[in-house]
User: Which sequence fits this backbone?
């Protein structure tokens, strides 16, 4: 497409720089999580696992991992169900307000989390839920459901609507047709939506910070470290969360690529 | 007509079955997303008496917003940072998107796009902390530059560091969006330009940029939205010396009972974002020549 060899090489080199910029902070995080210096810099100190040990001996950090797990395990399935149901309704039925449902479903991720956090804290405080993990779960469902709906919609775009109608013509009830036709075909998309929701919930810090009060999730604890005693412990937590998130996204990606092959 | 008495229950059952699927999303989002914003709008007119929030029709918070200099300054500063970051990131992303769309082969392209998704799922907080260790006076950048005699002091807590943070937040996303729109360009247009002896730079300016305008503008809008609402970069890379609206909101809420003020700032932020997004999108999809 671009013929000039010099231009091609320059563009590729530039792309390399952009990738370097994107991955430098991630790579440095891993390196300094096993480096002995209290204030990370070059030259490197010696190899150590002390920061990981410090992190896992810190009651607050352990508690935050427990909270994140609880929030994710409650919010992700709920968000997946809600998002999937909306995508299915949009695919299967024509009804009044269909576009409004889609817009309402897709809006939350486009609003800055700091504004979502304020609005939700104000609201949940009136319900007496402020400062509870329930509040964090409820808000994470709002934020994750749109992602789940988007993943499910991708799948439904590939499923022929006649299949379900054929099952009904053969005498299957609504539920039977759904269970026999849609569930098996949409299963990978459901799981992908769930892992994606887990990853989103696991990384969300702003809303969780506002509505969770003293019930800190992992990124809220990191925020706490940033405000107080910065140390390579942050990198150790970052490395662990990175592995968790990437594992979840890789699972989601594997399932979606498998479903597009069928 | 003979099955008249039965028809209604059947239709009702169908409608109920459909509603069962369609209803949960709007129900959840109305209660936990729309209602909080309705309350926030109401809150902006409430007043604070004896440290307690009381329902009211007071414009005190709006007056405070309109008459307090540092609030106006903070709004203008936030606009400048977010606008500057959106322009900068758009310019920085474009050559990378050109490389992805027009230089890489399909397999390498897929791999690079997948790599660009990875940062999205790593903690932004942790990456910002990482940049602190790069940019500090005794940090990595200076450790590399010092032997060359090029040491730079004061990189951290500066507008430069903030732009690094904003680019960390949205550069990968903007590259992806731009690449998508470049890949969607009709290649025969570019061949035609080439056959007509149009040079590479002129092809980019006269053919590629206009054809990819929606993707480029949408990318810039996303960058603007993300940076405008960001709290982490201005605080931990900008040093919090020049607060943005997000910091103002967090301080106002966390410091105590100034809920109406926080609500007013949040509503103004929403209004700015909505106006910018709509203006930019109508520009992006405006037909050429009109």
Assistant:
């Amino acid at each position: 497409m671009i013929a000039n060899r010099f231009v091609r090489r320059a563009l590729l080199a530039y792309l390399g720089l952009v990738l370097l910029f994107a991955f430098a902070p991630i790579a440095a995080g891993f390196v300094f999580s096993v480096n002995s210096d209290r204030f990370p810099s070059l030259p490197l100190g010696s190899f150590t696992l002390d920061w990981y040990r410090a992190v896992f001996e810190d009651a607050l950090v352990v508690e935050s991992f427990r909270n994140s797990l609880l929030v994710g395990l409650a919010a992700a399935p709920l968000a997946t169900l809600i998002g999937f149901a909306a995508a299915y309704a949009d695919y299967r039925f024509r009804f009044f307000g269909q576009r409004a449902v889609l817009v309402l479903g897709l809006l939350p991720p486009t609003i800055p989390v700091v504004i979502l956090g304020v609005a939700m804290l104000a609201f949940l405080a009136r319900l007496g839920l402020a400062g509870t993990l329930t509040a964090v779960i409820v808000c994470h469902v709002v934020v994750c459901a749109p992602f789940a709906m988007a993943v499910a919609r991708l799948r439904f775009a590939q499923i022929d609507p006649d299949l379900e109608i054929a099952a009904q013509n053969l005498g299957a009830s609504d539920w039977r047709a759904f269970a026999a036709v849609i569930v098996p075909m949409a299963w990978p998309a459901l799981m992908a939506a769930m892992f994606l929701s887990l990853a989103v919930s696991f990384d969300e810090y702003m809303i969780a910070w506002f509505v969770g009060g003293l019930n800190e999730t992992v990124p809220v604890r990191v925020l706490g470290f940033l405000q107080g005693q910065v140390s390579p412990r942050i990198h150790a937590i970052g490395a662990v969360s990175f592995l968790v998130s990437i594992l979840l996204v890789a699972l989601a990606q594997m399932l979606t690529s498998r479903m597009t092959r069928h | 007509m003979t099955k008249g008495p039965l028809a209604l229950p059947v239709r009702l059952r169908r409608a109920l079955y459909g509603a069962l699927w369609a209803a949960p999303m709007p129900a959840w989002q109305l209660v936990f997303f729309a209602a909080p914003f309705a309350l926030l709008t109401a809150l902006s007119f409430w007043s604070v008496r004896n440290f307690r929030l009381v329902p009211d029709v007071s414009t005190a918070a709006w007056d405070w917003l309109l008459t307090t200099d540092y609030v106006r300054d903070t709004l203008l500063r936030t606009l400048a940072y977010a606008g500057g970051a959106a322009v900068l990131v758009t310019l920085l992303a474009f050559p990378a998107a050109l490389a992805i769309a027009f230089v890489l082969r399909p397999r390498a392209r897929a791999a690079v796009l997948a790599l660009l998704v990875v940062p999205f799922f790593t903690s932004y907080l942790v990456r910002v902390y990482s940049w602190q260790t790069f940019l500090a006076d005794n940090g990595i950048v200076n450790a590399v530059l010092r032997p060359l005699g090029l040491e730079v002091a004061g990189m951290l807590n500066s507008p430069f560091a903030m732009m690094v943070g904003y680019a960390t937040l949205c550069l990968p996303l903007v590259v992806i969006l731009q690449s998508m729109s470049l890949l969607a360009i009709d290649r025969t247009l570019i061949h035609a330009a080439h056959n007509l002896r149009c040079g590479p730079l002129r092809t980019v300016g006269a053919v590629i940029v206009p054809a990819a305008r929606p993707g480029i503008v949408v990318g810039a809008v996303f960058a603007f939205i993300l940076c405008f609402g960001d709290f982490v970069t201005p605080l931990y890379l900008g040093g919090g010396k020049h607060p943005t609206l997000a910091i103002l909101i967090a301080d106002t809420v966390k410091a105590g009972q100034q809920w109406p003020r926080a609500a007013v700032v949040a509503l103004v932020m929403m209004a700015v974002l909505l106006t910018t997004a709509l203006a930019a999108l109508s520009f992006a999809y405006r037909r050429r020549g009109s």
